[in-house]
Amino acid sequence: MSTTEASSLYHHLDQMSLRELLVNMNREDQSVPMSVEKVIPQIELLTQVIVDKMREGGRLFYIGAGTSGRLGILDASEIPPTYGMPHGKVIGLIAGGDTAIRKAVEKAEDDTQQGWKDLQIHHISSHDVLVGIAASGRTPYVIGAVEIARQQGIMTGCIVCNHGSELASKVDFPIEVVVGPEFVTGSTRMKAGTAQKLVLNMISTSVMIRLGRVKGNKMVDMQMTNQKLVGRGVRMIIDELGISETEAQDLLKKHGSVRKVIESQRSHAPD
Predict the structure, then answer these.
(1) pLDDT band at 154 (very low <50, low <70, confident <90, very high)
(2) Distance CA 230, CA 232 (A)
(3) What is the edge-to-edge ordering of all strands in the sheet holding 90-94?
């Protein structure tokens, strides 16, 4: 039996007090970062490939079903506003299409051909990288997609939560982050989903930093889509240039991004 399907270490959940449920779930969650730490070398290998491909103009694709697919879409959707990357540079696909983001689509993950069909809509090519996300490592929608992609010369990776899965055997750069049995038996939206989210955070954040989308420790290319982010941008400019709040606000309004403000001011600074 795979780890993701193994019986919970806890029994009689329905007889636990609310406090016991919360404490025990939290205890299990604490093991997840340690499991992720063990696979940092695997994460590094895949991340470097993504950096290299994206530096050459390639894209990053995530593909998954259910919770795994939603996590990929979440990560992809946060890249443009956070780092100012154009939409379409990081793309998340889910079995069943966008409808499945909110509502499960029956049997969508069982189609071995649909994943590749979905990727073809975006004209995926050998310039890109495809990462399959599946806690079990045996989702047909994902396996079919990465198998064909690899045959087409596309670099492939995966994030799974079982050792020796079929999906891991089909990709160039597998990440196998095994977190043990779930608190609720088989509920991989819990520890497995948390582990996948942590790994996705590490991959996409590291890629954006390596691509120059962070200066120091600041998101200088973030999109000013609300007042909170405008305020953050103003503070970044004040810290970087040592100017007044009013000056920073005026410059940000004029140039549209923290990076452009800093570059414009430094280009006009006396030698």
Answers:
(1) very high
(2) 5
(3) 90-94, 60-64, 129-133, 155-160, 173-176
Q: Which of 5, 28, 78, 263 is labelled catalytic?
A: 78
- Buried b vs exposed e over 54-70: b needs ≥16 C-beta within 10 Å? beeebbbbbbbbbbbbb
Residue 122 phi/psi, 5-degree rounding, is -95, 5
Q: Dump pLDDT digits (tens) for 188-241.
A: 999 999 999 999 999 999 999 999 999 999 998 998 889 999 999 999 999 989
Tell me which of 20, 106, 109, 263 is the catalytic residue: 109
69 by DSSP, 3-state: which? helix
Question: Residues 105, 106, 108, CA angle at the centre, nearest 5°?
Answer: 75
Specify whether the CB–CB gap between 158 and 138 falls below 8 A: no
- Residue 109 designated active-site: yes
Please name the fold of domain 3-210.
Answer: Rossmann fold (3.40.50)
